[in-house]
Amino acid sequence: MFDKDFLKADDKMGSSYLSLQPLMSASRLRDILKLSSASGETTLRKVTPDSENCLARESSITCVNGEVVQNVWLRLLGVESGELQLTIKF
Description:
Elements: H1 21-33, E1 41-47, E2 59-64, E3 67-75, E4 83-89
Antiparallel strand pairs: 1-2, 2-3, 3-4
């Protein structure tokens, strides 16, 4: 992640990563369950923080109006502290 500077080069603020495998698995589950846009919001899976990911807190993968959505808080690596919030839609 970089900050945005107007008069000088952007500064690196840290890095993070997120596996998309749980999102892909949840998408297959949505297809198996035949969830559609009329089904509202359904929780498909929960992903917990561990040593294999940069999650700062537990994340739910839901099907919202037919879209698979994951809201995540990621810890930034290589810095003293910092978190990044993302919403991923598939």
